[in-house]
Specification:
The chain contains eleven helices and 15 strands. Helix 2 runs parallel beside helix 3. The radius of gyration is 19 Å and the shape is globular. By secondary structure, the protein is α/β, with parallel strands linked by helices.
């Protein structure tokens, strides 16, 4: 197949593009910066912004499938910045797919589209929730997911994936932040740290998206559906962070803040931080709620409909992470 991968500058999307190339697919990778994987006879890199409709349309020309993962993440920025990338950018991808008769579209979403501050325990991928004002990222991704899933037609099959807390060697989001803060004695956990959460080792997240492309076609069980992608091994926040710190060789000595207090602090920090700093704030309402409440999901729908299962356990993943840190 010839597959367009957007956002290939990120850890997950770059790894997906790289694996597709290794198995012999022709890949067009679209991202704003030079991708992390090497080119080959089977790869063509396009440096462009997902908001550039003409560039997206050109990149999609001749493609059989698209895996769309380009997104604005984090908490810094205003609504128009998140909307222009995550919503309008996704519309550009849909329009390009229809313009060039692309038959398969995998939209890389996030479990955040259904997280509204309450525990999620063993649930399936429910309809994305819109109308939240305290998380521009989650809101824009929810709007985009709904839009993309509604784009399916008699020729275009669409599926949304929601990879949950993807981590592994080289991860600068979950692993990088936990290790950096722990090494400075500034690791803080909202609540008791006993909330159960799902996470996903990077190799499993990659294989899930390739499985989604392979399973997807008009009339398939997954067409028009959303799936949470995770290892299916919920661990407490304490266990997850302790394992990350152990792999990196740093002490796990967190400070605990009552969840209600952490949420209030997040509300204040969200409003003050952008005025004085250009970096990500230490905590927000959304982050506090995610760290302090359970969120793990039923893994069976993805395994049944995508024909996929995780090949690397969390314990094996932590062992691989430790080996990676040992070589740094």
């Amino acid at each position: 197949m010839k597959i367009l991968v957007t956002g290939a500058g990120s850890l997950l999307m770059g790894a997906i593009a790289s694996d597709l190339v290794r198995r012999g697919d022709d890949v067009v990778s679209l991202q704003r910066h030079t991708p992390t994987f090497d080119g080959s006879a089977h790869a063509r890199h396009v440096l462009a912004d997902i908001r550039d409709d003409e560039a997206v349309a050109q990149a999609a020309r001749g493609c059989d499938a698209i895996i769309h993962g380009a997104a604005r993440v984090g908490v810094l920025g205003n609504w128009s910045e998140f909307e222009s990338v995550n919503v309008a950018g996704s519309k550009n991808v849909v329009d390009a797919a229809k313009m060039h008769n692309v038959s398969r579209l995998v939209y890389v979403s996030t479990p955040s589209v259904v997280h509204s501050g309450y525990s999620i325990v063993g649930d399936v991928a429910r309809l994305a929730v819109t109308g939240r004002k305290h998380s521009f990222y989650a809101e824009s991704k929810a709007i985009a997911e709904r839009m993309v899933l509604m784009a399916r037609n008699d020729y275009l099959a669409v599926v949304a994936t929601r990879p949950h807390l993807v981590w592994g060697p080289g991860d600068k989001q979950l692993v990088g932040r936990v290790v950096e803060r722990a090494s400075r004695g500034r690791l803080t956990i909202a609540g008791t740290g006993d909330a159960l959460v799902d996470s996903t080792y990077i190799d499993n997240a990659v294989s899930a998206h390739i499985g989604a492309i392979d399973a997807l076609h008009v009339g398939a069980a997954c067409d028009g559906q959303a799936y949470v992608i995770a290892n299916g091994e919920p661990r407490t926040v304490n266990e997850l962070m302790r394992s990350i710190c152990g792999a990196a060789g740093v002490a796990f000595e967190p400070r605990y803040i009552a969840l209600a207090l952490a949420v209030r602090m997040g509300w204040v920090i969200e409003r003050v931080w952008p005025k004085v700093r250009a970096t990500e704030p230490p905590i927000t309402q959304f982050v506090a709620q995610q760290l302090g409440t359970a969120h793990w999901f039923d893994p069976r729908p993805a395994r049944e409909h995508l024909g996929w299962g995780p090949g690397v356990s969390l314990d094996e993943g932590f062992a691989r992470l430790a080996q990676w840190y040992a070589l740094q």
